[in-house]
Design a protein that fits this description.
Blueprint: E1 7-12, E2 20-21, E3 24-25, H1 26-43, E4 48-53, E5 59-66, H2 69-81, H3 94-101, E6 107-112, H4 119-129, E7 134-140, E8 155-159, E9 166-170, H5 171-175, H6 177-194, E10 198-202, H7 206-224
Parallel strand pairs: 1-4, 1-6, 6-7, 7-10
Antiparallel strand pairs: 2-3, 4-5, 8-9
Helix pairs in contact: 1-2
């Protein structure tokens, strides 16, 4: 839509997004979503910026909004390299950081798999931010990363890359990981809608993602007219 506001993508760069299955990571789907939003901004000559956050929803890096395809590519590289460009704000509260980057009402897509413990609290913070800006959630369908091959062992030791903790689970529980991920993400959808936040779930397939986004935009436009 015609607007003079900026678009600030808030992307999950936690260590868990670097994991995946069959050679594909969760971060790949997040990066693709960042590009989709960024190139949309380029098409309409809107300013585009990026903030990345870790598993505790603390800022890792930030790129202030600018116009142009080259800046979108810079933001993508920033996301993929996990480099820090705003040292003063590192480990700050992301909701406060977002507000600090926005001089006027802006569009704020928050892109993540939302597989972190304090996701319900984060949704509440974003709901408050939505009072001043246009916030919506893009949730990456992470089930593929947990659809693991069958194992013969009765017990499997798992390792959390973010906390460094290990846990031994039964083969039955191991095989239900993707189901539990789906249940958690369905709960996130419910919490987001209860908080009056729009949310769209996107997958790895390019055409499926584009279809989901087009349908989401069309529905959102009708509701806001």
């Amino acid at each position: 839509q015609n607007s003079t506001g900026a678009i600030i993508a808030v992307a999950d760069a936690s260590l868990s997004t670097r994991c995946g299955a069959h050679g594909v990571t969760i971060a790949a789907a997040i990066a693709r979503s960042v590009v989709a939003v960024g190139l949309s901004a380029v098409f309409f000559q809107d300013m585009f910026g990026l903030i990345t956050f870790d598993d505790a929803f603390r800022q890792l890096s930030a790129a202030r909004p600018r116009i142009g395809k080259s800046h979108v590519i810079y933001c993508l590289d920033l996301y993929e390299q996990r480099t820090q460009t705003d040292a003063d704000a590192v480990h700050g509260d992301v909701a406060a950081t977002i507000a600090a980057h926005l001089r006027k009402t802006s569009l704020v897509p928050v892109i993540s798999d939302f597989l972190f413990a304090n996701a319900p609290a984060v949704i509440k913070e974003l709901s408050i931010l939505n009072g001043a800006h246009d916030v919506f959630l893009m949730m990456v369908d992470a089930r593929f990363a947990y659809q693991l091959p069958g194992v013969s062992a009765g017990w499997i030791q798992t390792f959390d890359v973010e906390t460094g903790r290990t846990r031994t689970v039964s083969r039955r529980e191991f095989e239900r990981l993707s189901v539990r991920v789906d249940e958690w993400q369905q709960e996130i959808i419910r919490l987001a809608r209860d908080a009056d936040l729009d949310i769209v779930r996107v997958g790895l397939d390019r055409w499926e993602m584009e279809t989901s986004l087009v349908e989401f935009v069309a529905e959102r436009r009708l509701r806001k007219m």
